[in-house]
Amino acid sequence: MSGSAEPYGREGLPLEEARRRVLAAIQPITASNTVPLQQALGRVSAAAVLASEAVPGFRASIMDGYALGQSHQPKPGETWLLKGRSAAGQPFNGTLANGDAIRILTGAPLPDGAGWVLPQELISIDGSSLQLAKKASDRPWIRPEDEECRPGDLLLSAGQRLGAADLARLAGCGIADLTVAQQPRIGLLISGDELVPPGTARQPGAIWESNGTLLETMLRALRQSVTERRVVADQPDALRQALLDLAHDCDVVVSTGGVSAGDTDWIRPLVAELGAVDFWKLFLRPGRPFAFGSIGEGVPFFGLPGNPVAAAVTALQLLWPALQVLEGQSEPELFPRVMVELADPLSRRPGRPELARARLDTNAAGKLLARVDGSQASSRIGSLQQADLLLELPAEAGPLERGTRLWAQVIRQRIF
C-alpha cells in the first residue's frame, strides 16, 4: 500500500492555523439579558457574581449524632446530659455548657457552646444520660458556616459557560436570576439542486436533505440554536439573495455545500462578491473544501463542505469555537484530548491529517481503546453514530496496527 490516495496533494491550511485565523477575526456580541437560573443552562455569564453572605451561614452537623458542649476530643467513658434536639429547619434554641449534649441530625445547626459531634453509633443512652462507648475520631464532624462561600467570594466569572453545578451553586447562595450574554443568531443556508425534503419522493440522482437536520440538532446539543434555515437550489441569484438576507438578520452565516470548485459551486465566489473570503481549503480529512470570510458589514461566514460528515467535523473544529467567542465566552472550550490505543488494525494511506470517528472502550487492564467501525467516508453519516472520539491520524500515517497509540478528542459532552 504505497503512494498517496489523495488527489489534492499537500494544500490548504492546517487546522490549528485555520482556527487561529478564525478566532482572531471574531468579535463578541455585547448585548445581554437577565433570565431565571432554570433558563441559563449552557448560556454565558455576562457579569461576575459575588456572594452577598456566608453559606450555609451557620455551623452544621455533618452526620446524625449528638452535639457536645465542648471543643476537645471526647474519651470513652465520658458522659453528657441530654438537653434537647436540633434538626434541619428546627434548630435547638439555647446554649450548651460543658457536660451538655443535644440530639442533632445531618445538616442541622449547632447551638452556641457546641464544638463537637459524635456519631450516634458510638453512644449508649440511659434515660437522659449519654456515654461514649467506643473511641471517637479526632474529627469534630462540623461543617463551617462559610463552607460554600464567604461574603464577597467570586461565585461566577464573566464569560463563563454555565453548567448544572454552576447554576445549583448560585441557587444555593440565594441567587434566582442571572445576566447572560445574548446568543448568536445563526443563519443556515443549505445549497444543492439535488436536495429534496425527507419524506417526499425523489427522482433519480436526487438525495434527501440531511445536513440541515444534522447541523441544527448538533448545534442544539451544544446549546446553540439556528435562527433561520434555508434550502436553496444552485442558482446564483437565489443564493446571493439568501446570503444577503441571512447576513442582515443574523450574527453569523453558515452554509453547507457549494464552496468547492465545481461548475455549480457558487457560494464562495458570491461571498467574495458580497464581502471577503479570508481563506479556502483545509489540510484536513474530512473537510478540505471549507471557506471562512465575511459578508457585508463584517458578518462572519462559514462555508462548510457539502458532505455531511465533513460539515459536522469542520463545524465542531472551527464554527463551535467561534460561536463561543461570539457569545462572549472568555476562552473557547476545545474538546479534551486523551491518548488511546487502536482496538483493531486500521487501513489507511498517507495524505492529509484525518479526524476519524471512533467509539471509546476499555480493555481488562483499563487501557483506553478506540474502535473504528465501518467506512470513514465523509458522505456516510453512520460513521458519526455512537462516536465518542475524533481520532487524530497524522498525515504521514499509513496502515496502523492494533495497539497503535494515538491522540483523540473526546466529543461527548460534560454533565456538570
TrEMBL record:
Alphabetized InterPro entries for the sequence: MoaB/Mog-like_dom_sf, MoaB/Mog_dom, MoCF_biosynth_CS, MoeA-like, MoeA_C_domain_IV, MoeA_C_domain_IV_sf, MoeA_linker/N, MoeA_linker/N_sf
CDD domains, sorted: MoeA (cd00887)
Pathway annotation from the record: Cofactor biosynthesis; molybdopterin biosynthesis
Gene3D superfamilies: MoaB/Mog-like domain, MoeA, C-terminal, domain IV, Molybdopterin biosynthesis moea protein, domain 2, Molybdopterin biosynthesis moea protein, domain 3
Enzyme class, broadest EC rank: transferase
EC numbers: 2.10.1.1
GO CC terms of this entry: cytosol
GO molecular function, one term: metal ion binding
PANTHER family: GEPHYRIN, MOLYBDOPTERIN BIOSYNTHESIS PROTEIN
Function, in words: Catalyzes the insertion of molybdate into adenylated molybdopterin with the concomitant release of AMP.
Protein name: Molybdopterin molybdenumtransferase
Source organism: Parasynechococcus marenigrum (strain WH8102)
